[in-house]
Specification:
Pfam families: L_HMGIC_fpl. This is LHPL2 protein. It comes from Vidua macroura (Pin-tailed whydah). 49% of the residues lie in helices and 14% in strands. It has 228 residues and is of the alpha+beta class. It has a single domain (4-33, 92-226), classed as Up-down Bundle (Butyryl-CoA Dehydrogenase, subunit A, domain 3), CATH 1.20.140.150. The protein has a five-stranded antiparallel β-sheet. Strands 1-9 form a two-stranded parallel sheet. Helix 1 packs antiparallel against helix 5 (183-209) and helix 3 runs antiparallel to helix 5 (183-209).
């Protein structure tokens, strides 16, 4: 018989697992990993909101995508265009970034799988006498290691020609040059830290769902068990 068991700790772990998976996925897909050096706008370019000249803009560069401004010859304005600069995996600007993409993709796939499974832990707490919480926690720890490898290798690619075109001639491995780090990089780091927190917290979720109070509720014949 299926017993739906909901506790504060198990629900918090489930929510964190989902948030972490989405945060890493959004960061990976974003082009805001590097913010390039400011490029001055022409005095003829007009800001539609203020009516004055546009401020200098800073293009952004991701692992496989970028955002830049394109000119409209018939209008005195520019529009920001975002999209992948690499049409396939081999066109990613650096071998280090290719490795980063692989490690991050593996880690994110594991996190998404755990996030999906975590929703069903309210009803199924074990498989083949193994606690789902403990298995998911182990997988989250493994995913965190892949994410760390990807984030360590990513700065090694700052010396590639693509990064230099955005960050200036002084950019090199682990040196930003004229660039700065974008929100996507910080989000990926924050998501990695939360991944390990989730891995540790999964043990608390397992303890909460197998506590004496839960067992008492099951013995009383209750199918829906909610404990604070």
């Amino acid at each position: 018989m299926c017993h739906v068991i909901v506790t504060c700790r198990s629900m918090l772990w489930t929510l964190l697992s989902i948030v972490v998976a989405f945060a890493e996925l959004i960061a990976f897909m974003s082009a805001d990993w590097l913010i390039g050096k400011a490029k001055p706008s022409s005095s003829e370019e007009v800001d539609n909101r203020t009516g004055g000249p546009q401020e200098p803009y800073r293009p952004t560069l991701g692992i496989y995508g970028r955002c830049t401004r394109i000119s409209h010859m018939q209008f005195s304005r520019r529009d920001t265009l975002c999209g992948p600069y690499a049409e396939n995996f081999n066109e990613i600007a650096s071998g280090f970034w290719q490795a980063t993409a692989i490690f991050l993709a593996i880690g994110i796939m594991i996190l998404c799988t755990v996030a999906f499974v975590s929703v069903f832990t309210m009803c199924v707490q074990s498989i083949m006498k193994k606690s789902i919480f403990n298995v998911c926690g182990l997988l989250q720890g493994i995913a965190g290691l892949f994410l760390i490898l990807g984030l360590i290798l990513y700065p090694a690619g700052w010396g590639c020609q693509k990064a230099i075109s955005y960050c200036g001639p002084y950019a090199s491995a682990y040196k930003l040059g004229d660039c700065s780090l974008g929100w996507a990089f910080y989000t990926a780091i924050g998501g990695t830290v939360l991944t390990f927190i989730c891995a540790v917290f999964s043990a608390q979720a397992e303890i909460a769902t197998s506590s004496d109070k839960v067992q008492e509720e099951i013995e009383e014949g209750k199918n829906l068990i909610c404990l604070l």
